[in-house]
Amino acid sequence: MRLSGKLRFIEAPAVVSPVLEITLHSFKLFIFCAMPLDSTTNQDFPPQPADCRRCERLATFLDTVKMRYPDYHARPVSAFGDCNAQLLIVGLAPGMHGANRTGRPFTGDYAGILLYQTLHKFGFASHAESVSRHDDLRLLNCRITNAVKCLPPQNKPNPDEIRQCNHYLQVELREFVRHGGKALLALGAIAHQAVLRSLDLRLKDYLFAHGAVHTLEDLPVKLYDSYHCSRYNTQTKRLTAEMFGQVFTRIAADLSDHHFQGE
Question: 96: helix, coil or strand?
């Protein structure tokens, strides 16, 4: 898809209401973030994950979910947040009644509660709660995506589906680094491995462990690990708010002090 060279935005008159100004600004930001990336060169994939049906099992499952829940997003879920963020958070996949319903990562289910509370606490989000993609929540110097863009049955993507979707994560990470990204936070081992694959790094050189910080070879970014903020992990205390906060304390300190390779 290519935008016509004749497309342009007409500035609103001086008497325009503040609400309309915000709407126009948000629309411009959406268009910028949603435009196909120059680095998406594989013609076997749609430019945007929202149009992808490459994984037959996932595409068929989403069709079934859409029939059962007509009001659900039930499509691949794109990234959300600041296009020029220094922090990119990578989760596993959309949840059935969360991102798959709302169309925004970690929005509408239990997994997003601790995440957005923590982001707000550390200044990465304008609010402590993400309700829907139509609310006024903004991420600040932060962006959220998933290793797999589609809802998988039983929340378990197959290995081949993870590898297939890695194309989109690779594009996202390339753009993240190109725009000055510094910190990658992987929520769980699968997201951790997906990040490494997308950067063409060997898994055995960077083992997943909660709280681990990895300096990546020949890259000006660091990879931070955390257990996933799922209902199971938080209710069983495998991941507590304090543990999660400690990860963000390190990230915030590193971003503030510019403790990164090449700086």
Answer: coil
CATH 3.40.470.10 for domain 63-257, yes or no, is yes
Strand partners, 184: 88, 223
* CA distance between the termini of the chain: 37
- Neighbouring CB atoms inside 10 A of 49's CB total 24
> Which tokens sit at 26?
């948000």
Least reliable range by pLDDT among 39-53, 116-130, 185-199:
39-53
Q: How does pLDDT run across 96-106, given as a tens digit for each residue?
A: 999 999 999 99
H/E stretch holding 59? helix 56-68
Q: Where are the domains of the chain?
A: 63-257
Sign of the Cα pseudo-torsion (113, 121, 149, 2, in order): positive
Percent helix, strand and coil across the chain, each rounded to 5?
A: 40, 10, 50
Q: Which residues contact 239 (CB under 8 A, 6 or more apart)?
A: 114, 210, 226, 227, 228, 229, 233
